[in-house]
Amino acid sequence: MPATPLIDFETLDLSRVIAGRDELRRVLKQRGTFELLDGILHVAPEGKLIVGYKDIRADDWWSNDHIPGRPIFPGALMIEAAAQLCSYAFSTHAPGMENAFIGFGGLDGTRFRGVVSPPSRMVFVGRLKRFRTRMFTYETQGFVERGLVFESEVIGVVV
Predict the structure, then answer these.
(1) Is there a cis peptide before residue 67, judged by omega within 30 degrees of 0?
(2) pTM (2 decimals)?
């Protein structure tokens, strides 16, 4: 059974980008093909809730090979995009973490609930569940046209 959405789409303005690629590059260490977020749409106080997006395009680097003739955005890349979203929130709100490198600590409860095909905009949501000085856990979800297609708890650690 799908989880309850972490956000109410009716209460947020998801048309306004508050942090684009330049800001993401300032904070996140991933480059090139592994820059999996296109922007941040909402950040609640203290980074407890964050919303970002990725535009899924037919010319993305993975689209010819996953799956030939019927491109499907890979679940592993959904997880990575969600982790980058959470890393951005942690790095910009935890004292002294502005230049920290955040690595994967683990995943819990990961479920894929739909197929994501180009062209589409995938909206990622992260809600802080647990915060420690060098570690965090966020509940994350991914949506296409407000339909839940992915969810997972993402654990990040300062490396």
Answers:
(1) yes
(2) 0.95
